[in-house]
Amino acid sequence: MDTVVQNVPICGAGLGYRRELMEALDAGVPDVIRFFEIAPENWIDMGGALGRRFRAFAEQHRFVCHGLSLSLGGPSPLDEMLLRKIKDFLDQFKIPLYTEHLSYCADDGHLYDLLPIPMTGEAVKYVAARIRHTQEILERRIAIENASFYVNAPMAEMDEPTFVRAVLEEADCNLHLDVNNVYVNSVNHGFDPRTYIAAMPADRVVYMHTAGHYYEAEDFIIDTHGADVIDPVWELLDFTYQTLGVRPTLLERDFNIPPLAELVKEIERIDVLQRKYEQTPYVRHVHG
Q1: What sections of 47-93 are H helices per DSSP?
Q2: Most CB contacts within 10 A, which of 19, 52, 247, 273?
Q3: Which residues of the chain fall below pLDDT 50?
Q4: What does the domain layout of the chain look like in residue ranges?
């Protein structure tokens, strides 16, 4: 599989392309923002003035696509019509990377949440086959994202890092490493997040997320993407760059979106960390 569509790489720090930010971004994109991320489901069939506005912006800036609804671990057949639309969208806008959650979100209809997959050998083979089929339709390698979850799926035969590595190998796909999700799960399920990060295969990590969350209780975090990144997550991102190398990294902010100038302060912090470790082995750009 080949992710190459253009010769300009995705690198540096990025931001989600949100409608609330369009006016500010149309007025001028700060230099520190090197790329944007969108959910293709939200834009594929967008027409009218909003669609034209997006297309004009996409012609000038680099994008990554992060899917929301493929349900790689779900029991229902893959939505091949959606995948073909995504392929056309990626090709049309020369988007080099498509990622999806390692979870499931549909069973005879969308469940509007990302649910954990049983961490079993059978599940590894099942999910990997669906990822391979996805890659065949898209004609490119994808990256799967480690998801946050709040209850452990039953019948687990392995821990989460082992399960993730097994899926990556069986599917021959890449990893979209969400550092905040590792932190959230480490608090909710009681493990060392640095041990998890160190267990990830550096040669498969192509993309990263960081984000804020909400403390429901001292030992229970909700992954909201609706607050500033906290110091322990910044420290974990620092450790991740030191351990695995620098990757293109997105600041996720989906709710309680502040003015662009405030978000830029956090993106600049990502940029500072990336420059600190830019000579670390395995530094990788996503080429398109």
Answers
A1: 48-58, 80-92
A2: 247
A3: 1-7, 106-112
A4: 9-287
